Amino acid sequence: MRSGKRKRGWFGSWFRAILTLVAALMAAFYLLSLIALVALRWVDPPITMVQAQRRMEAWVRHKPYTRRQQWVPLGRIAGDLQHAVISAEDGRFFQHHGIDWKEVQKVVDQDVEEGRLGRGGSTITQQLVKNLFFTTSRSVVRKGVEFTLAPLAEWVLPKKRILELYLNVIEWGPGIWGAEAAARSWYGLPAARVTRDQAARLAAVIPSPLRRKPARMNAYSEEILRRMGQTGW
Predict the structure, then answer these.
(1) How many domains does the chain have?
(2) For residue 23, what are the domain limits?
(3) Were 83 and a residue from 2, 8, 197, 233 both cysteine, which residue would form a disulfide, CB within 3.0 to 4.6 Å?
(4) CB 122: neighbour CB atoms within 10 A?
(5) Per-residue pLDDT at 45 exceeds 70
(6) Could you count the other beta carbons within 10 Å of the beta carbon of residue 147?
(7) In terms of Cα–Cα distance, which of 139, 166, 20, 175 is closest to 81?
(8) CA distances from residue 41 to 27, 70, 85, 96, 201 in whole angstroms, order as listed
(9) How many CB atoms lie within 10 A of CB 162?
């Protein structure tokens, strides 16, 4: 009996120690994330976790990798490109506070109806958090942390800064990061000078940047243009 009690006591002590360690690590992660988000009000990130992931993937596969990225302020990104990206990725960007609960409900309803889970529906803020702090690998834990960090990002950062960060760090093709590099790589133009049609085609690439090319995005770019028109853009 005493031996059994000792074993249970030993197990309970280790279990509590593990829980304490996990709680401490989570607290440290959130604190560091908060500090990083505050700094991002004024400082442009030199690299993101997704960018580091792509570099590591290239190294593991022994493939050459060149990162093309040129940071530009929001004012040097064409309004049509800003509007196209919002229309494609997060139509209620200026209405929600990090999580678009209407879209979440829509996604859940469709997943239940189709008997599957895992469709998208992430806001621009959630996508920014993912790019900054996580990789593209999917997990329930990552999604849960992303859900809690997105409102924190909205609390710390102004909407326009979130959009500026997002447009400068997201992937637009192999080694192509940000709107300026995307516009120059695909069209030979600065991001400030892309046309409305080019903007819609660039926005259509975002969900799958390693496989899609703007020239092939005829149907989806038309849908994005339709959404822009409905919004008054």
Answers:
(1) 2
(2) 1-39
(3) 233
(4) 21
(5) yes
(6) 15
(7) 166
(8) 22, 18, 21, 19, 29
(9) 23
Please check whether residues 167 and 138 belong to one and the same domain.
yes
The label of the residue with tokens 């660039």 reads 202
How many angstroms separate the CA atoms of 55 and 29, rounded?
Answer: 23
- pTM, whole model, 2 decimals? 0.88
DSSP E strands in 67-149: the ranges are 68-69
User: For the chain, what percent of residues have pLDDT higher than 70?
Assistant: 89
- Assess whether 123 and 35 both reside in one domain: no
Helices H / strands E in the chain, number of each: 10, 3
Amino acid at 30: Y
User: How many other C-beta atoms can be found within 10 angstroms of the C-beta atom of residue 79?
Assistant: 13
CA nearest 218: which of 198, 199, 202, 201? 201
Measured between alpha carbons, how far is 49 from 33 in angstroms, rounded to an integer?
13
Instruction: Give the integer Cα–Cα distance in Å for 180 and 197.
Output: 16
Indicate if 23 and 128 belong to the same structural domain: no
- pLDDT greater than 50 at residue 75: yes
Q: Quick one: average pLDDT of 182-195?
A: 98
SS3 69: strand
Q: Give the whole-angstrom CA distance, residue 58 versus residue 78.
A: 32
Q: Give dist(CA 178, CA 68) in Å, integer.
A: 8
Place of tokens 């990206």: 85
